[in-house]
Amino acid sequence: MIGKFFQKPTTQENERVPPGQYLAKGFPVLTYGETPTISTDEWKFQVSGLAKQAIFTWSDFMSLPQHEFTADFHCVTRWSKLDVKWTGIKVTDFMKLIEVDPKAAHVMEHSYGGYTTNISIEDFVREENFFAFKLLGEPLPREHGGPMRLVVPHLYAWKSAKWINGLEFTAKEDLGFWERNGYHRRGEPWAEERYSTS
């Protein structure tokens, strides 16, 4: 299995691969439940909770500055992929469009299909985080979260919600789908924060 689909990192790659991870030769797809189908015409993005309520369309997002991103991608199931090339919109650019209550300390990511995952404001509003709509120069495939997903490179990939369609800002931490089912609240790869200790 390791030889066919995964490989051990080389000495040069070791410093970029968190403990317990193997390098994927392809780009595996892991999804719980059905894969939603959403066109860009019907896609909507809602801001709720401790923020001024707002709904954004695909055109609203596409009017924001677009950037090329190259980021390493780490899955909690012990595979990593280095130098993944995306096109997207910085979280920090999107945040300029919305009004968030200073009491907000956490964010719940919402997705088509009902998936949720929680993240702290501190982890969310970082310059390297982005909303991706292209992968390797092509529109983001459905199985990888198209038409749009969040990418949070410094945390395990379940925090990078596929099919994202909203952000709910909260004062206290609420747990998302995997966090309620035994996964770590934060998910930092270098600390191997895979599963809850409580």
Automatic annotation (TrEMBL):
* Start and end residues of each Oxidoreductase molybdopterin-binding domain: 33-178
Kindly give the InterPro entries that the UniProt entry links to this protein: OxRdtase_Mopterin-bd_dom, OxRdtase_Mopterin-bd_sf
Which segment of the chain is annotated as a signal peptide?
Answer: none
What is this protein called in UniProt? Sulfite oxidase-like oxidoreductase
Natural source organism: Aetokthonos hydrillicola Thurmond2011
